[in-house]
Amino acid sequence: MAAFVAILGTMAPPRPPLSRLFTVLLAGVLAGLVLAVAALPGNLLLGFAAKAAVGSYAALPEALRTPATPQRSYLYANDGKTLITTFYDVNRTDVPLDEIAPVMRQAIVAAEDRRFYDHGGADLRGLLRAVVSNVSGGGQQGGSTLTMQYVRNVLKTDPGRTAEERAAATEQTVGRKIQEIRYATALEQRLSKDEILNRYLNIAYFGSGAYGIAAASQRYFAKPPAELTLGEAALLAGLVQSPEAYSPIDGDADAALQRRGYVLDSMVDTGAISAEEAARARAEKLTLRPTAQPNGCTAVAQGHDDWGFFCDYLRQWWLAQPEFGASVEEREQALRRGGYTVVTSLDPQVQATAQKEATRVYSYDNKRALPIAAVEPGTGRVLAMAVNRHYSLDPNPDGQANHPNTVNPLISGGDSVDGYQAGSTFKLFTMLAALEAGKPLSTGFDAPSRLPTRYAAEGEGSCDGRWCPANANPEWMDGYRMMWDGFGRSVNTYFVWLAEQVGQEKVVEMAERLGITFRADADATFAENDAADWGSFTLGVTATTPLDLANAYATVAAEGTYCAPLPVVSVTAPDGQRVPVGDPSCRRVLDADVARAATDAARCPVGQQSTLAQCNGGTATSVNRILDGRPVAGKTGSSERNATETFVGFTPQVAVAGIAANPDDPTDSVGAAVQAKVIDAVARVIGTAVAGEPEKAFAAPSRELIGDPRRPVERPPVEQRRPSEERRPSEERRPSPSDDQRLSDLRRWLERRG
Fold this sequence. Notes:
Among the domains are: about 90-285, Biosynthetic peptidoglycan transglycosylase-like (Penicillin binding protein transpeptidase fold), CATH 1.10.3810.10; about 420-445 and about 480-555 and about 590-705, DD-peptidase/beta-lactamase superfamily (Beta-lactamase), CATH 3.40.710. It is built from 30 helices and 19 strands. By secondary structure, the protein is of the alpha+beta class. α1 crosses α9 and α5 (about 100-110) packs parallel to α12 (about 230-240).
């Protein structure tokens, strides 16, 4: 009977009127019986509870009799040997009860179980109070005692149990609640109240990553639990009911203070403190001294703090995987206590080159940064994540918000990092949308210096009230262009025109299809509501990240197969069983021929040639030299006033992106001069990634998507001027093929195709 009432008290989801009425009536019938039992003297009540428990202390799960020792999880590089770091429960340290301030012990009892010292594991009076409150609209209350909560916490986090068993420890069923009561009553037969209270305080979750009172007192107040004041103890005790919602660091500080007031009132009711003491504590201003949560990513192998950015990305990925628990809290515990062996996708050699190149362009203490990401096409596995920053919680000099130390996700984005404008690299999405719409690579347009569009605009960049984009270097860019040389020379007016032909909304949708995430609120709103009028989208005005950009280009390299970014190769549980989370998650998002055609044009920027030799100039021709003619493709990008400079390059085996920017100040222009350095840095990372790998050629596109490239050919000056946005005077250029050579190549190709 008591167990059934307990279910009513702890399972209180919203009910329709008839169901609520039924519960009220049923509760009324049971209330008399429960009150009769609850009115018994304390010793008889405890005896009743003991007899109600079926089983004994010896029959309890081992984790309840002997609390499980957390096991470390190990993270290795993709060779399975190079240790990156270990994760363990560094933010949970067991402390004896005499090292916990008495006010903390009193506060947790007052907040969670006022009759803790009077019941035998299951409090019938508390269960009745919860039933009455829940069904009468007096607020949601649980009927679980501290002992029952301890049982639940142990069973749902025990690394020795399966995921299903851990999930069963919190499911809302009569059977689970009866088992919880049985276990709690059996524990109370053997353990003293103080021992149960000590175990509870060492395992309870207090929010913001803090498990146990020792971690919580350090996390929120930077002190050991023995030194907690009354106000601090009341605040911490109040967090247990809803750790994430009440956390004054990550949740709602006002709600935390209100909850602190409730705990203080409860302590007055239990006689632990006087009303005057409660009033003084309530009047105290909330003063936090938050210390960063100890994180395995800040403890990577010595001399490799750059690995921390990849490690943090893996941790965020882990916390999103349901295989490791039903909630973020459970997944965090699984990582820190579960004893997993994780072989990550990080390639130490590629990472080392990426870090070397990032710091060659900008030093660690430079306010500007070059985040670089490398992704494997066809799997989405992330091979490297580098930036000229130390992944560290160490303080920075005054005025330097994010350098040389930071733990912000500068490469992958998230939290407060929306990303950076990637300029003309977004022309790829316009080209793909056009090809998918049936427009061949030979689609021609006489690109003017400025192109009046249908989009309204005012001020600079407008022509008679219309947006009027311009080419960065008219001498080198204006004239009749097709996709090959339009992409190779990065002709703004050609691609704005092309986007108008296929529809801006299709270009935006293409970018999203290839994994571009709109993290900035303004970008997300525009994409959802005004995509058809987002004329400047093709010029890369939205914020993105090197990881998103590298993965989008990797989709083209994989001939249209998109794979979600993946930081692991395998995850193995302590029992040797593989957890099914290491396999790539891929799907076809582009016709292979469309991807091949885009790749054909993307050979032009890097100084190589398309299938029919239609490339006649590129903005990153040093790449061909650095990779010694190995098949490669890519695209440069400069945002307005050279605020950022970007290069993405890819082969069939790897895609790499780097974006030079100031993460703290988007108005700080990095300048055009750094473009050449970014290009060379990305090319060298590609070189390391493909070193020793067989050379793979790109497949040629179909005749339908090539179209008919025969047209009047522009004859550029012998000494072509580089575009001002991407000028590199000393760069070697591949000579443009003659008209006769183009026609000869075309005839041979047509003959082969019949």
